[in-house]
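Expect sequence, tokenised fold; for instance:
***
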Amino acid sequence: MSAHQEPHETPIVHEQPDAWHRHTLDEGKPQHEHGARAKPAILAGVCISMVVSVVAMVLGVAIYFEWYVTRLKADRTETITAATKARSEKEAAWSSLAAPSAWKDRDAGTVRIPIERAKRLVVEEYRRSGTSGS
């Protein structure tokens, strides 16, 4: 290699700094760099408080969920119990309508008859009188 050979890289050219980069004495003493030194005690405290906050929120949601599910199950159980009772009463009413003929009030001359027979009697009565049901 010769001693007069040019370097193989482009030389770094710096532009002149603009007014923003130049500071005057009117600005006062420069401030120190903010956050240049980490304070482990403060960082650990912040980390621990964040972890405790997250754990508290998770526990709060879990407790609320358990309370809500328990209340929902109780409501459904109550509804099922009420529906079962209503169904039993309805079935008892229908079975009494399908029961065989019997005296309801002998003195008044009232007789209980099955519902299907009562329907047939009403239809026959309308036919005999010539009245249309519709």
